[in-house]
Design a protein that fits this description.
Elements (H helix, E strand, L loop, with lengths): L8 E13 L11 E10 L2 H16 L3 H4 L3 E12 L2 H5 L7 E3 L3
Antiparallel strand pairs: 1-2, 1-3, 2-4
Length: about 100
């Protein structure tokens, strides 16, 4: 079915994620968490967050530590706001800003 443009909106979801070790990682692994933004189409904020988390999880699967289950990924939505359809059309957001231990 075609999207109902009245019911569906573009949202920008800012995600903060943390990695927790399931096994002891090498000390040279610097990333302990990340921030990312995702532009998604959804009928409400709850659906937008779910879609944004799914998008981030799919991209994180490229990392062998995540894919192989060596780390657990926890995410929370720090901000959910109405976004620009134009921004969503240009790519929907990808990539991560990683941080080490505080």
């Amino acid at each position: 079915p075609l999207l109902d443009a009245v019911a569906v909106r573009c949202f920008c979801v800012i995600i903060r994620g943390e990695f927790s070790e399931r096994v002891r990682l090498a000390p040279d692994v610097p990333a302990r968490g990340f921030y990312t933004s995702r532009w998604v189409l959804a009928d409400g904020e709850e659906t937008a967050v779910r879609k944004a988390f799914h998008s981030a999880e799919q991209e994180l699967q490229q990392w062998s530590d995540v894919r192989d289950g060596l780390v657990e990924v926890r995410m929370e939505a720090e901000e959910v706001s109405k976004g620009s359809w134009w921004r969503w059309l240009r790519g929907g957001g990808r990539g991560f800003a990683f941080y080490g231990e505080a």
